[in-house]
Design brief:
Helix content is 32%, strand content 17%. It is α+β, with helices and mostly antiparallel strands. Strands 1-2 form a two-stranded antiparallel sheet. The protein is flat, with a radius of gyration of 28 Å.
């Protein structure tokens, strides 16, 4: 059995086929990332939607407007040191903690039991 050489048209067709695979992958990634959609979500659109649903409350966050902040410290007992070598979990280690518990929604005057 002898292999006949490919004609120029066959070579171009095969190269085009090979080139289409990466092109298709690029298009899929662009579509998944929202780059090909005209209605792409932006920061301005998100803020506008949050203000429309929760109302405008100057001086408060657009979402999770109602919350409680806290400060404290985390004291390790050493029980987690079997799972991690991080110094945070060593026996007697203390780490300062700052946090916030918040309720979803943009209305700071909403009752705690309200679900937006």
């Amino acid at each position: 059995m002898t292999n006949s050489p490919l004609s120029t048209g066959q070579k171009i067709a095969r190269l085009a086929l090979v080139g289409m695979v990466p092109l298709a992958l690029i298009i899929v990634f662009l579509w998944a990332g929202g780059w090909l959609a005209p209605q792409r979500l932006s920061a301005d659109k998100l803020v506008t939607a949050l203000q429309q649903s929760g109302g405008e409350h100057p001086g408060y966050r657009r979402n999770h407007a109602k919350g409680v902040c806290f400060i404290g410290e985390f004291r390790a007992t050493g029980n987690a040191s079997a799972f991690s070598r991080a110094p945070l979990f060593a026996q007697g280690a203390t780490t300062p903690v700052t946090g916030r518990f918040a309720i979803a929604g943009g209305n700071p005057g909403a009752p705690d039991y309200a679900v937006p």
